[in-house]
Design a protein that fits this description.
Blueprint (H helix, E strand, L loop, with lengths): L27 H12 L3 H8 L3 H9 L10 H4 L6 H4 L7 H10 L5 H12 L1 H6 L1 H20 L4 H22 L8 H38 L12 H4 L1 H15 L5 H16 L1 H26 L15 H19 L2 H18 L2
Helix pairs in contact: 7-10, 9-10, 9-15, 10-11, 10-14, 10-15, 11-13, 11-14, 11-16, 11-17, 13-15, 14-15, 14-16
C-alpha cells in the first residue's frame, strides 16, 4: 500500500513549527510513485480502491459532529449575544489591539464546512445533511426572533449577524446533496456556494459598518444603547440617518445593495437542493425586515428625544471613514460580477472536485 502522510497539526502556540515555503515540494517522490501506479489501473479498479468500509465512513462522519454546528450554536445559547457587548475594540490602546489580534482566535465553522469538510467528506455530509439543515434553519429563524426581542442595539446586531451566517451555512450544507451530474444540478450547487462565499464577504462589510455607526450613536447618546433612549434623531442628523439607512437596507437584502446578490444566489440554489429548508428559512427574512424597520422608526423618526435636540450629524472625519464602506455596498450591489468572477473559479473547481 502507498500512502501520503502530511505533518500533524499542533496546538503548541508557544513553540511554533519552523515555517515552510509553499513552493517547496514535499513527498514529491512518493507522489510520483503513487501517480505511476494509479495510471496503470482502470477506472473501475480506481473506484474500488476509493471505496471504504461502512465503519470507516461512520468514523469519518463522527469526527466532525461538533465541528459542523459551530455557526449554529449561538442561536441555541442565548448568552452568545453578550459577546457583542463585552469587547469594546474602540476603547483599546495600541498595545491592547496588538494583544487582541494575537490572542483572540475565532474558529470559522463556515470555512471548515466549505473548504475542509465538503471537499474531503462529501458523502458523510450527505448522510447528516438533514440535521445540519435543521440547525441552519434554526440559526436563521431563532436568531431573527431573538433580535426582534432585543432593546439593546448591539445585542440586536449580534443576533442579526448570527442569522445572516445561518444562510451561508444553509447553502453549504444544501450543496452536499448527492445529485445527478447534469448541468442543472451543477448550476444550482454553484449558485448556492457562490452566494455563500459572496455573502460571507458582504456580511463582514455590512456588519462592520453597522457596528461602527451604532458605536457613534452610543457616543452621542451618552453611552446608552437602549432603543428607548432615541427618537426623532433624523431631524438633527439627516446624513447619519441616510448612512444608517443604506447599511440597514443592505442587511435586509434590498436590490441594488451588496446584501441582495448573495442572498438571491443562496436561495436560488437552496430552493432546488432543499426546498423545505428554503421555505422555512424565508421567515428569517421577514422577521429581519420587521425589527430593522422598527429600529429605524424608533431611532430616526417619531417624537424627538431629549438628547436628540443637540445631537450632531456625521463630522467630516466620520464621513471619510464610512464613505468607502458605503461605496463598496453600492458597487457590489450594482456590479456583483466583479466579485463573482473571483469566486466562481473557486466554486467551479469545488463542484467539479465533489463529483456529486
Amino acid at each position: 500500500m502507498i500512502a501520503l502522510l502530511s505533518p500533524a497539526k499542533t496546538l503548541d502556540y508557544e513553540r511554533p513549527l519552523p515555517p515552510v515555503d509553499a513552493t517547496v515540494p514535499r513527498f514529491a517522490a512518493e507522489a510520483s510513485t503513487l501517480a505511476a501506479a494509479a495510471a496503470n489501473l482502470s477506472q473501475k479498479r480506481l473506484a474500488e480502491l476509493m471505496d471504504i468500509s461502512t465503519k470507516l465512513a461512520k468514523l469519518n462522519a463522527d469526527r466532525f459532529v461538533g465541528f459542523d454546528a459551530q455557526p449554529e450554536r449561538p442561536a441555541l445559547y442565548a448568552f452568545a449575544g453578550d459577546v457583542y457587548l463585552g469587547f469594546e475594540a474602540r476603547t483599546l490602546d495600541e498595545p491592547g489591539v496588538y494583544f487582541a489580534q494575537d490572542h483572540v482566535r475565532m474558529l470559522s465553522g463556515l470555512y471548515g464546512l466549505l473548504r475542509v469538510l465538503l471537499p474531503i467528506f462529501p458523502e458523510q455530509m450527505w448522510w447528516v445533511q438533514t440535521p445540519l439543515l435543521w440547525l441552519a434553519v434554526a440559526s436563521v429563524v431563532m436568531s431573527a426572533f431573538a433580535a426582534l426581542a432585543q432593546t439593546d442595539l448591539k445585542r440586536m446586531l449580534g443576533y442579526l449577524s448570527i442569522s445572516h451566517l445561518g444562510y451561508c451555512t444553509l447553502a453549504v450544507v444544501a450543496a452536499a446533496r448527492i445529485t445527478p451530474g447534469d448541468a442543472h444540478w451543477v448550476s444550482e450547487k454553484s449558485a448556492a456556494l457562490s452566494g455563500a462565499m459572496l455573502q460571507m464577504f458582504n456580511h463582514g462589510l455590512i456588519a462592520a459598518t453597522f457596528f461602527g455607526l451604532v458605536g457613534w450613536l452610543e457616543d452621542r447618546n451618552g453611552g446608552t444603547r437602549a432603543l428607548s433612549g432615541f427618537g426623532g434623531w433624523g431631524k438633527s442628523a439627516p446624513m447619519f440617518c441616510g448612512a444608517m439607512g443604506v447599511v440597514m437596507f443592505a442587511s435586509v437584502g434590498l436590490p441594488g445593495l451588496s446584501g441582495f446578490v448573495g442572498e438571491f444566489l443562496i436561495f436560488k440554489g437552496v430552493v432546488a437542493l432543499a426546498p423545505w429548508a428554503a421555505a422555512l428559512s424565508s421567515a428569517g427574512l421577514l422577521v429581519t425586515a420587521v425589527f430593522l424597520l422598527n429600529f429605524a422608526q424608533k431611532v430616526w423618526h417619531g417624537p424627538l428625544s431629549a438628547r436628540g435636540e443637540g445631537v450632531s450629524d456625521l463630522s467630516l472625519r466620520e464621513r471619510w471613514i464610512v464613505a468607502p464602506s458605503l461605496i463598496l455596498i453600492f458597487a457590489l450591489g450594482l456590479y456583483p460580477q466583479v466579485a463573482l468572477r473571483i469566486v466562481n473559479a473557486t466554486v467551479s473547481g469545488l463542484v467539479e472536485q465533489l463529483g456529486i
